[in-house]
Every structure is written in structure tokens, then in C-alpha cells.
Design the sequence.
């Protein structure tokens, strides 16, 4: 069976250096297709579905939506949003099992041995392999499509979102200060012009654990939205620290330190960086939600035959 051009381009985009060439060649078409999907073909139907069945939010959920809307970022503790101690204990046990696994230990050793050769996010140890098949009843997947999270995301975006990626990360402490690499540097996520990443801390995240840093008001509608904007759905301009400091003082940055059980809801189309851990590890779960207009492929496949779960229509859409 011949490979579709779009599939071939997507595959090439994942290859360092060659991916840059593929994006450059494909950009003109993407820059036409993406606005069509956003304004006419994909997002408007999703918006109508959301408006027809808009969720009734709790006080805690409304607080998160309000802060996302005004700042692009919000914090909430698991207890306040869920109040489910049994579920938290189960998730915490699963996270601890991952952290203490042999696979994590081997990757930590390999990272420090081959540091000079590492690229991009190799300082992260991930629970899931690339393009995993995830069971429908997987607890990490189920938490991401739980209404207490999904209804917040959908209300902020004003439509039914799609869950595009999910993972559990262990950030390897560098031991000493080294040059920032990859997403440790300031950037905007290029997948969508408006999006939400949800992080849940399973360790204490102090300043030496590489907490996320964020510039409020740098996403759509904010005063810094025009700075270092992406040129399209594949562009990702990266300012140097000196450039950013010259235009946005440190007093306006938010450093997302937090205790175990902290949720961070963040529109990562805004300027941010993270993962620069010097002394302490950082353990967190991550869910990424995009609008239907995004041209980026989902990074996992759902095994729909792996268990019976009652899903809302919004949850089914998120996994469609």
C-alpha cells in the first residue's frame, strides 16, 4: 500500500535535521490548511457540540478556568479538585513504582554517562514508549478524561478538545549547572494557537527540581502574545534568555514550584520553559489537549477492547 504524502511528512518531521527540512517544504500547505480547520472546518462543529452540552462547573473548576483565561496558567491541589484520597493513593503508588523501576535507573545511568551526546528531552525518562497503545481502562488515561479535568479544559477552549498525548515523566537532576537544552529554553509549543497542558506533581518541585516557568499574558489575548510568535503550526522561535529578560522582567515570570499533589493547568502556546533540574528529581504526569484544528498527530492509540468504561460524549470525542 502506498504511503500517503501527509503520513510521510509527519514521519519525516520526527527525524532531527531531516525533520526541519520536511517542515520547511510542507509549511506553505500547512499554513493554509490550519486556518481553514480553525475557522471553518473542525473547530466550529466542536464549539457547537460544547455549547449544546456545556458542563456545570464546580467552584474549584470555575477558579481554574478564570485564571487560565486571565493569566494562561492556574494551580489547584488534587484534594481540592477531586477530593478522592483512594484514587490519589492508587496514582501515587503507580508513580512510585515507575520511579523505583529498573528501567528508570538504567536510563539515569546512561544519561550521565553519555551527557555530551544527548539531545532534546533525553533528560526525561518516560513511562510510555513512543506511539504507545494505551488500554481504555488505564488509570492515567482515565484521569485525563475525567470530567473534573476535561470540563475545565473544554470550557477554557470553548469547544470539545482532543487528548493528544499522555505520560509520566521523571526529570533527571543534572548534578551541576549545565547549558539549557530543548524545552529547558524559552519557547512556545507549536501544536496549536490555543491549547492546555495539565501537569500533576508526584514529587515536591522546588527551584532545584526544574519547575516550569511561565510568562503570564503571553498566550492568545495577552499583552505579550506578539513576542516570538510561531510562524505557523510547525514554527518554534526560541529567544535567548537575555532577549526575553530585556522585554519581560523577572518579576513577571511565574515559577511553578509546588507540593506533591499540585495540578498545573497551562496554555503552553504561551512562553514557558522547564525541566532544568540541578539537584532534585521532578516526577509528574502530563496530559496535552489540543483543538480539533491542530495538524499534529495523536501520540498514542487507544485499545478500545481492553475494558468496559462509561465515557461521556466529551470524553469519547477527546479520544476520537
Sequence:
Amino acid at each position: 500500500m502506498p504511503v500517503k504524502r501527509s503520513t510521510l511528512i509527519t514521519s519525516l518531521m520526527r527525524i532531527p535535521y531531516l525533520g526541519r527540512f520536511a517542515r520547511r517544504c510542507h509549511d506553505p500547505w500547512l499554513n493554509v490548511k490550519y486556518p481553514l480547520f480553525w475557522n471553518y472546518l473542525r473547530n466550529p462543529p466542536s464549539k457547537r457540540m460544547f455549547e449544546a452540552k456545556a458542563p456545570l462547573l464546580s467552584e474549584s473548576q470555575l477558579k481554574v478556568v478564570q485564571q487560565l483565561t486571565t493569566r494562561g496558567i492556574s494551580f489547584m491541589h488534587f484534594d481540592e479538585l477531586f477530593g478522592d484520597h483512594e484514587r490519589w493513593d492508587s496514582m501515587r503508588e503507580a508513580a512510585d513504582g515507575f520511579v523505583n523501576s529498573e528501567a528508570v535507573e538504567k536510563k539515569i545511568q546512561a544519561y550521565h554517562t553519555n551527557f555530551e551526546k544527548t539531545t532534546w528531552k533525553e533528560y526525561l525518562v518516560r513511562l510510555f514508549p513512543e506511539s504507545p497503545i494505551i488500554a481504555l481502562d488505564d488509570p492515567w488515561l482515565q484521569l485525563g478524561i475525567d470530567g473534573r479535568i476535561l470540563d475545565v479544559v473544554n470550557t477554557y477552549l470553548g469547544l470539545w478538545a482532543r487528548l493528544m498525548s499522555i505520560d509520566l515523566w521523571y526529570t533527571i537532576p543534572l548534578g551541576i549547572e549545565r547549558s539549557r537544552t530543548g524545552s529547558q529554553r524559552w519557547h512556545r509549543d507549536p501544536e496549536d494557537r490555543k491549547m492546555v497542558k495539565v501537569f500533576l506533581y508526584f514529587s515536591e518541585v522546588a527551584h532545584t527540581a526544574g519547575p516550569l516557568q511561565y510568562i503570564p499574558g503571553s498566550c492568545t489575548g495577552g499583552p505579550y502574545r506578539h513576542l516570538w510568535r510561531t510562524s505557523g503550526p510547525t514554527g518554534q522561535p526560541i529567544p535567548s534568555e537575555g532577549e526575553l529578560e530585556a522585554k519581560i522582567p523577572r518579576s513577571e515570570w511565574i515559577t511553578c514550584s509546588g507540593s506533591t499533589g499540585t495540578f498545573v493547568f497551562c496554555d503552553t502556546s504561551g512562553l514557558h520553559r522547564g525541566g532544568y533540574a540541578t539537584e532534585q528529581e521532578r516526577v509528574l504526569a502530563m496530559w496535552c489537549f489540543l483543538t480539533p484544528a491542530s495538524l499534529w498527530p495523536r501520540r498514542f492509540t487507544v485499545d478500545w477492547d481492553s475494558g468496559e468504561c462509561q465515557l461521556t460524549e466529551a470524553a469519547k470525542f477527546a479520544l476520537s
